[in-house]
Design a protein that fits this description.
heterodimer, A: mainly beta, 7-stranded mixed sheet, 4-stranded antiparallel sheet, 11 strands, B: mainly beta, 6-stranded mixed sheet, 12 strands
Amino acid sequence: DARVTQTPRDKVTEMGQEVTMRCQPILGHNTVFWYRQTMMQGLELLAYFRNRAPLDDSGMPKDRFSAEMPDATLATLKIQPSEPRDSAVYFCASGSTGLTYNEQFFGPGTRLTVL
Amino acid sequence: AQTVTQSQPEMSVQEAETVTLSCTYDTSESDYYLFWYKQPPSRQMILVIRQEAYKQQNATENRFSVNFQKAAKSFSLKISDSQLGDAAMYFCAYRSASGDDKIIFGKGTRLHILP
């Protein structure tokens, strides 16, 4: 059963600490997306990759957020330093440009709480 | 730029009844894809149904069906024989067929199922 995995599921940290979230896309998928979900803003696209190349990170606060794909099986989202306003659920999703619909398959999300 | 609008922030339906969730979108393109995603309290985003714009036949997946009106730019979701497990946030989404991988999401409609 192919699925997107994310770690950790939940993370509580103190303001100023570094946070790293990891995502394993579905094997064979070549697009990866990072979203942030809050009650106020809904789902926001932070960054996305195609064939491991970053194509759009315009939704990401550049001063503290960074997203990378070290290899095809791992995507990371890092926040340094974290702030209370970063508290949200962060989703990773993957897709394949080889499929007709190129729909996105979501991971279970990481709930981040910054105290 | 394309937009997706879900005008009903919340809806309720009696168990076993039928409910329709509304979605409209704005685009100047003729070829695109539309999706409905479900997010239950577990927070996992699940693809419910999808539709290609150039297919006139409305998509159906078991108790879920859509009413796709291309000229009106409307894409409503009908849930028949509502079950307690259908309680969730439902997101309507749009993807251009022009090669853009990004999906544009609406703000969501929270569906309550009344026993």
